[in-house]
Amino acid sequence: MGGKLRLGVLVSGRGSNLQAILDRCADGRLSAEVAVVISNEAEAYALERARQAGAPAVVLDHRAFPGREAHDRAIVETLRSHGAELVVLAGYLRIFGAPIFAAYAGRIINIHPSLIPAFCGKNMHGLRVHQAAIDFGVKVTGLTIHFVEPEVDAGPIILQHPVPVLEEDTAESLSSRVLAFEHEKYSEAIQLIAEGRVKVEGRRVRISPPKSEG
């Protein structure tokens, strides 16, 4: 394989998925590098994680822009200026508009803490998702990694991983168990893309076997 896949990671909060990606890039488990980390929140701890790892950290506070389109254009400009090839959403709590989809069509991925199409859509993020799963009484939840399209949580699914819901689970305990798998599976999906093994056919994502050596 040639050079490393350059990632533009967007975050709004503490950035534990970002940390998992940074760690795997550093130790060679991931054939990628974090080209830039962008947050709409200046206080997001994810920015400190990026700085500690030597990755560029950029604040683009959406409140400082006249509207969503102007903010989106600034994101695109920042991603392009750092040579980002794949946009990775890691707890980013803003919905994109047309400029980003035009610039990075088919190159934006997200992770969601449920088995889509269950417990997803607008305003379904964080502990709300896990509480909804518990309240509904499902026995299995999990996580989904998918391509991002204009409709929230509706893009083609790359990977899913099931996680049992235990009788004594709270939203917090369930979140903690799902998150542990998020850290593994998000990097797995990025590695598949880096290896050129992901192909979208309509709503289905085809994953080809690894290329044989020699």
Shape: globular
What's the number of helices? 6
How far apart the termini lie comes to 13 Å
* Highest CATH level, the class of the largest domain: Alpha Beta
Domain unit count = 2
CATH architecture of the largest domain: 3-Layer(aba) Sandwich
Rg, Cα atoms, Å: 17 Å
**Low-confidence parts lasting 5 or more residues at pLDDT below 50?**
none
- Largest beta sheet: what is the strand line-up? 3-2-1-4-5-6-7
Class derived from helix and strand content: alpha/beta
Q: Describe the largest sheet.
A: 7 strands, mixed
Count of beta strands? 9
Can you describe this structure?
- With 214 residues, the chain is α/β, with parallel strands linked by helices.
- The chain has two domains: 105 residues, Rossmann fold (3-Layer(aba) Sandwich), CATH 3.40.50; 104 residues, Formyl transferase, N-terminal domain (Rossmann fold).
- Helix content is 34%, strand content 24%.
- It has six helices and nine strands; from the N terminus they run E-H-E-H-E-H-E-H-E-H-E-E-H-E-E.
- The protein has a seven-stranded mixed β-sheet with strand order 3-2-1-4-5-6-7, with helices on both faces. The chain has a two-stranded antiparallel sheet with strand order 8-9.
- The protein starts with a strand and ends in a 7-residue tail after the last strand.
